[in-house]
Amino acid sequence: MATFVLVHGSWHGGWCWRLVTPLLRAAGHEVFTPTLSGLGERSHLILPRVDLALHIKDIVQVLYFEDLRRVILVGHSYAGMVITGVAALAAERLRQLVYLDAHVPEDGQSQMDLWTAARREEARADLAAGRLYLPVPSAALLGVTDPGFASWLEPRMTPHPRTTYVDSVPQQTAASRALPRAYIHCTNASIIPDPRQVYATNARAAGWPVFTMATGHDAMVTQPTELARILLEIAGED
Q: What is the pTM of this model?
């Protein structure tokens, strides 16, 4: 039996894994879907002090208080930053990292460092003007075009604190660097050129298993069965 901890990206919450979780549990695995501070059902706690360090702490605390070991830690989108930070602080509780169409930072990088220069300048201007929260996008921008899924997704998304994009990830340790990693690339990107293609390419070059899904960014919504199949395949590669 494997233990999965699934970490959502910007604007989402633990609720977004609702279609994937039963498939993993039906295969006999344990699954946790925490919600990061200030988002989802915890959106009433959104404050300017919500940053990447706090989100990393959210997940480290789940690992500790649930006493989880040999965890397959999955991060979607922004949560690639989160799981990288968790690995630096709690590698002894992890078995593997899985980046689901996610950012993959190097030591000392923030999410803003991974953006284009124009987007970084725009983000800095927003922060300087006191626009601290990134508004919710359309479901279509995330690759969710089915009206039924879109009507479920959009009302549940909540603004994301821009301050989380400024922090750098913690320095990796020998133990965290040794953790196996895998990348899942959603190839039907709504933004061209695909900003995550470089992560998939780099992952292949580093020898990580790389899986592709012909779907948009929110694969847990659009293709939950295929995503669960890939995660089960990863779990079987120990």
A: 0.96
CA–CA separation, 124 and 140 (whole Å):
26
pLDDT digits (tens, 9 = 90+) for 80-123: 999 999 999 999 999 999 999 999 999 999 999 999 999 999 99
Look-up of token digits 């990061």: 36
All domains of the chain in start order, with CATH: 3-235 (3.40.50.1820)
- Nearby residues of 102 by Cβ (< 8 Å), 6 or more positions away: 9, 75, 76, 77, 78, 79, 80, 83, 183, 196, 199
The catalytic residue among 10, 37, 43, 77 is: 77
Residue 77 among the catalytic residues: yes
Distance in angstroms (rounded) separating the CA atoms of residues 170 and 179: 16
